[in-house]
């Protein structure tokens, strides 16, 4: 495109947090961030949401943990990872040096563990916000996660919000009848923003062996296959909530990201795309900037919520 | 660790469903070590979505070679590329083979099962350059599974082939061939790459003979760069056994650290 | 494949209905059946589920009604079609001549309309069963469809089952938190089988015009993109229900269909695939037969529910 | 209505992002009528998922020709096919133009906007064969949008070109060119294919002059065979206006029946 690049204002204000641009990396798809240093300039990101952290290190699920599906990926990692202490000791000091906002995805096998993670992290510096992953299987409730009911969502968000000194983003699961009800429950409980969507519960079968293709039988579907579902949910929620919405699900290009903004998201997260192209998130920032310049859009925030439905 | 989006496919050689690609990718070639791998984009669209991991078959300052067998849609798409086309490749990735145990003048056994031969060519070249004596064991179900036998011989390596169906060379599993040879010559080290059952059997054999061994593992990989935690294998660790990312700590592991399913 | 074809028993017994083979065509993707006569032998199908029928002819939604997404298709047809009388007068007489089971997908803008459709059809001959499409937007309930709650599902199924003289298959929506709860409600209400999944609520946006790509804003996602979700739901439901399960969602090949059987489906429906290849359903029957022959499976029913999860 | 899964691409001609395919597909070619279309599979995988509708540019007992402009991923994939490759095509589909109004010796205006020229070549041939006198109006934004002008002239048709930017022929919309010519010669009928705004304008012009007209409509098509109800356009019907499937009752409709948005 032969466009004279005009400066485009990419800054994004979530109210509780100012970002250099509206592109964050999605939890679990960008490791702890540092893995990507060889491939992109971490300072060029709007934010990094690190892999979900439990109080203690976790084993994760037996392999196979991944299976590719048409335009999608199912994962059943089982939130393997270092515990919160190891994160604070070995990783956070490096992330703190970045100009990019660091957001920690908070996990828990029950409400107490979520609270423990936040209590510990509250004592650390260099974290911009928490993203509450309410899709963690609850060990006491037959694996049901808080994200599946407005009641459990409300209770957990309320407790964590009260306990924490930092802004709280609640990350919603798409595996519900009414995403709006859940989002509203999170808002009523005081969340500062909602992020959606987490992965869609799915499975794949190996016909020859007649076994599930994942060690854990079920897993979460992500990638372009779910983008139409994600976009619908973001649109449903954004028009009903006062707090900002962070949209994600299958974003591969700047155009995809801008569609989420048009649907009402104030910012986006880039997930599976980072597996295909480790530099995807920064490319997406660049593509958004170029699109805005080419379309005479002075500030990317002017695109937010501009869907015309009449 | 470079993303080369403009790697030029210089040459394609094929034998049935096996393909050898010679690729101009200087930044990757220069850094590559035997046993490392690359992640290759197979489609521009979203299906298939992920890159495919392929071992580095050879490398020099101008680029790399790949050797692969068509296993599904991704490798099938790849196999239709023609000389002159561009590839999008990330690499070199992972940790390769340790050359140290095969010091000057010593013998090293390299056992490749089917497509598992891919990284062993590069390894054999490096061992030869270091003054060691690689002996390559190359096995497949039948003649069609061991297309590289001429190439290996022309390169001057000592090669012993096996086929399960007895159509060429030793009749039986490559592990049996290795075991037979072990009775004659004991190497300083055994390197292997191939299907899990083969490597598991070889792990038992090398352990029995008290030989150091290194195996290159395979797994479905989401990213190849340590970010997705998808590619884990059970590995013995000082701090206890656990699921270890083979793209980062491997794909090559010492035999004694690998816990087989 | 150099396989000597052994005769494979493809017959499928749903209890209330015997099918020549387990492959039906999914409602709304196979017109009224006759459209496909030039492309395949309708007698080779296990069954034809015709396009959803309301009591009266319907206008449908304004175009665009379709949008392609990665490995998927979103449709917002709005159930345009002939009414039940016109169907009985012009189409059913021809369908009756077929050796294939004819199943009518029953729609209604409220419970009364569903009942009216069934009351009318009960007087016609040549229908093997009804498939109750409980995903129809309800005009009296702000567009909410019965499929979204166990209560409304139970009530509707109970009423229609009591009113009808024919076997009833209840077709479930995937847009729910617990597909098992809904399926169980349908079972308790007396359904003879369940069919799943209907399309996943989705949307697509045209970035250049900042408009929804569908005239109706939201639509239903089908095709390979949703297969992993469908397979998971079929597996969840099949292990919990006594009545047979008919599985669908993204089936493009015989292998896909067999995976649904392995997951527990007694039969399958082929949807979007018929748009891509009008003869897809019959090809799928052939592929299933060949797979069984090559794997020494004497009867396709022996594959049903054989998933090994341990 | 045949599914030809083995249609051989005999010849490819291209001008920038416009392509002409000559295809061996006898069963489709034999039945084809001007204004009908085919559904072409563009990928073996699931992305893109659906076939693409393309007008029949020409046909005879050996097969058909297509003429298309790259509009997105589907046509882009198609454009990379080479002579000798196989295509999977369903056709002929839909109802084409009515040739009757253009009886022997009479003049017919054929207006094509951009890729809308595709079916008009076949129509012009049929009209000529029937003894009518087709005059083709061929418009585009610029010179690059009207690549078929030489081909049409070489075929012996009377052609008048227009470009919005004035780079070739009449400067302005093709509709203006048609209106100008209408003042000179009144044809027996006007046929058109092109973007909606063009056809809408032409519908107004032909109505004003009381001329019979037929327009070939476009829409996103799920199936092309009347099964999905996706391709509807608002059409005036005896029983009242309604959404009509253009793949089945069209894509060609008489001007007075089309209700423009
Ligand atoms: C580190 C590493 C190096 C490799 N080097 C080579 C090589 O040099 N030459 C070569 O021919 N192959 C190599 N492989 C295997 C190669 O990656 C797979 O054959 C390929 O990814 C299959 O892709 P596909 O789309 O063709 O098949 P798919 O349709 O994706 O799968 C076909 C079959 O292969 C299995 N599979 C898929 N991905 C992988 C994977 N990453 N590893 C193992 N099995 C898989 C699937 O479960 C399935 O059974 C390597 C794998 C790894 C992990
Ligand atoms: C009956 C009929 C005959 C046609 N004949 C020709 C022809 O002879 N030559 C030719 O070049 N084109 C023709 N078209 C248009 C052609 O079908 C589209 O350009 C093509 O489907 C776009 O596919 P794509 O994957 O390249 O682009 P996509 O990425 O799918 O879409 C690119 C743009 O085209 C629009 N589009 C997609 N599908 C269609 C469609 N079916 N009709 C109109 N717009 C669409 C999309 O909304 C988008 O704006 C015809 C269309 C119809 C309905
Ligand atoms: C391998 C993998 C691991 C993930 N781990 C987490 C996690 O730890 N916490 C979380 O909230 N979401 C996790 N997710 C969900 C993503 O953050 C994101 O919500 C989802 O993948 C949809 O976005 P995408 O389609 O762009 O990938 C994970 C996704 C993948 C693919
Ligand atoms: C264009 C279209 C129209 C549909 N109409 C109906 C319908 O009338 N009644 C119904 O129960 N399902 C309808 N469906 C849903 C399908 O029957 C099926 O449940 C869904 O498409 C998933 O299967 P697939 O992925 O194989 O297409 C429709 C689907 C499509 C794509
Ligand atoms: S492949 Fe992603 S962590 Fe190894
Ligand atoms: S394209 Fe399916 S009905 Fe016309």
CATH superfamily of the largest domain in chain B: Nucleotide-binding domain of ferredoxin-NADP reductase (FNR) module
Mean pLDDT of chain A: 95
* Total number of domains of chain A: 1
Query: Main sheet of chain B?
Result: 7 strands, antiparallel
Give the % helix of chain B.
10-25%
Strand order of the largest sheet of chain A: 3-4-7-8-9-10-15-16
**Helicity of chain A, as a percent range:** 25-40%
Strand content of chain B: 25-35%
CATH architecture descriptor text of chain A: Alpha-Beta Barrel
CATH superfamily of chain A: Aldolase class I
> How many structural domains in the coordinates of chain B?
2
Write a structural description.
The complex is a heterotetramer, with two copies of chain A (310 residues) and two copies of chain B (261 residues). With 310 residues, chain A is of the alpha/beta class. Chain A has a single domain (12-60, 81-204, 223-303), classed as TIM Barrel (Alpha-Beta Barrel), CATH 3.20.20. Chain A contains eight helices and 16 strands. Chain A has helices at residues 84-95, 111-122, 150-163, 179-188, 227-238, 254-263, 273-276, 280-294; strands at residues 12-13, 18-19, 23-25, 47-53, 66-69, 72-75, 101-106, 129-133, 168-171, 193-196, 200-203, 205-206, 211-212, 218-222, 245-248, 267-270. In chain A, the strands form four sheets. Chain A has an eight-stranded parallel beta barrel with strand order 3-4-7-8-9-10-15-16, surrounded by seven helices. Chain A has a four-stranded antiparallel sheet with strand order 5-6-14-11, with no helix packed on it. In chain A, α6 (254-263) links the parallel β15 (245-248) and β16 (267-270). The mean pLDDT of chain A is 95. Chain B is of the alpha/beta class and 261 residues long. Chain B folds into two domains: 2-93, Elongation Factor Tu (Ef-tu), domain 3 (Beta Barrel), CATH 2.40.30; 101-216, Rossmann fold, CATH 3.40.50. Helices cover 21% and strands 34% of the residues of chain B. Chain B contains six helices and 16 strands. In chain B, α5 (174-184) packs parallel to α6. The model of chain B has no long low-confidence stretch (mean pLDDT 96). The interface between B and C is small, with 3 and 3 residues. The structure holds flavin-adenine dinucleotide (FAD) (2 copies), flavin mononucleotide (2 copies) and FE2/S2 (inorganic) cluster (2 copies).
């Amino acid at each position: 495109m032969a466009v004279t690049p005009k400066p485009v204002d990419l800054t994004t204000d979530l109210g509780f947090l100012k970002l250099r641009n509206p592109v964050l990396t999605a939890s679990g798809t960008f490791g702890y961030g540092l893995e990507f240093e060889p491939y992109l300039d971490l300072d060029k990101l709007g934010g990094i949401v690190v892999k979900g952290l439990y109080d203690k290190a976790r084993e994760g699920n037996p392999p196979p943990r991944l299976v590719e599906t048409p335009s999608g990926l199912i994962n059943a990692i089982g939130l393997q990872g270092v515990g919160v202490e190891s994160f604070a000791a070995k990783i956070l000091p490096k992330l703190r040096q970045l100009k990019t906002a660091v957001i920690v995805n908070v996990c828990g096998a029950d409400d107490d563990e979520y609270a423990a993670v936040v209590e510990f992290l509250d004592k650390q510096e260099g974290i911009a916000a928490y993203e509450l992953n309410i899709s963690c299987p609850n060990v006491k409730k037959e694996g049901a996660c808080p994200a599946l009911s407005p009641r459990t969502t409300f209770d957990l968000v309320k407790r964590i919000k009260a306990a924490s000194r930092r802004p709280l983003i609640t990350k919603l699961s798409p595996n519900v009848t009414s995403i709006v009800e859940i989002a509203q429950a999170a808002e009523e409980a005081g969340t500062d923003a909602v992020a959606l969507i987490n992965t869609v519960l799915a499975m794949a079968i190996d016909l020859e062996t007649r076994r599930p293709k994942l060690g854990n039988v079920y897993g979460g579907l992500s990638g372009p296959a779910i983008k139409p579902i994600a976009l619908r949910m973001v649109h449903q929620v954004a028009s009903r909530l006062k707090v900002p919405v962070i949209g994600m699900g299958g974003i591969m290009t700047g155009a995809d990201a801008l569609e989420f903004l048009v649907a009402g998201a104030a910012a986006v997260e880039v997930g599976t795309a980072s597996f295909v192209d480790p530099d995807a998130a920064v490319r997406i920032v660049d593509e958004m900037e170029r699109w805005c310049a080419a379309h005479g859009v002075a500030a990317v925030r002017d695109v937010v919520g501009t869907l015309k439905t009449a | 660790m470079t993303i080369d989006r403009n790697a030029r496919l210089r040459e394609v050689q094929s034998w049935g469903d096996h393909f050898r690609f010679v690729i101009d990718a200087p930044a990757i070639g220069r850094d590559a070590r035997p046993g490392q791998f690359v992640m290759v984009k197979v489609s521009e669209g979203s299906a298939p979505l992920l890159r495919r991991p392929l071992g580095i078959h050879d490398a020099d300052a101008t680029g790399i070679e790949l050797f692969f067998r068509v296993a599904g849609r991704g490798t099938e798409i790849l196999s239709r590329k023609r000389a002159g086309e561009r590839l999008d490749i990330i690499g070199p990735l992972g940790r390769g083979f340790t050359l140290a145990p095969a010091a000057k003048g010593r013998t090293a056994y390299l056992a490749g099962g089917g497509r598992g031969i891919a990284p062993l060519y590069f390894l054999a070249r490096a061992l030869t350059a270091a003054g060691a004596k690689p002996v390559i064991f190359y096995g497949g179900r039948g003649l069609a599974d061991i297309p590289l036998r001429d190439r290996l011989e022309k390169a001057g390596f000592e090669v012993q082939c096996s086929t399960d169906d007895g159509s060429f060379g030793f009749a039986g599993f490559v592990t049996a061939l290795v075991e037979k040879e072990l009775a004659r010559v004991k190497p300083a080290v055994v390197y292997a790459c191939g299907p899990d059952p083969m490597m598991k059997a070889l792990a038992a054999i090398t352990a029995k003979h008290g030989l150091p061994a290194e195996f290159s593992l395979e797994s479905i990989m989401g990213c190849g760069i340590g970010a997705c935690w998808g590619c884990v294998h059970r590995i013995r660790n000082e701090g206890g056994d656990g699921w270890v990312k083979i793209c980062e700590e491997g794909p090559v592991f010492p035999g004694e650290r690998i816990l087989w399913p």
